[in-house]
Amino acid sequence: MQTALLSLFLIMLHVIMAALYVIVPQVRAIAAMSVFLFAGIIISLKIFPRIFPPDFIWSQVENYIIISCAYYSFGSALPAFLVSALLIICCVLLVILWQHI
Fold it and tell me: Where are the alpha helices (DSSP H) in 1-101?
């Protein structure tokens, strides 16, 4: 189950980057988004748990990477899978919508 959650997280990152490339097909946009995602993940892993109260569990990346953190935060691992899958579906729908415009 841990492997599935980690794989879904990595697929989610890939789909976000692919959706951005479809919308803005420039290398600079991809590079900027890569740096933004990397910095956001580092900030979420290191700073969010110390600064923000436990109410911000939806914004902590570790809940979508590590199954034990997801189970501890949400009470079940299912919300981590659902949020990741929903974000993937939203990105795919955004790409489909963007191609029709």
Answer: 2-23, 27-46, 48-51, 62-65, 67-74, 78-100
| C-alpha to C-alpha distances, 32 to 5, 17, 27, 36, 81, nearest whole angstrom | 26, 10, 9, 6, 27
Neighbours of 26 (CB within 10 A): 10
The pTM for the full model equals 0.84
| Nearest partner of 22 among 10, 34, 30, judged by Cα | 30
- Report d(CA 89, CA 22) in Å as an integer: 15
pLDDT by residue (tens digit) across 34-91?
Answer: 999 999 888 888 877 677 776 777 878 888 899 998 998 889 999 999 999 999 999 9
Domain edges within the chain? 2-100
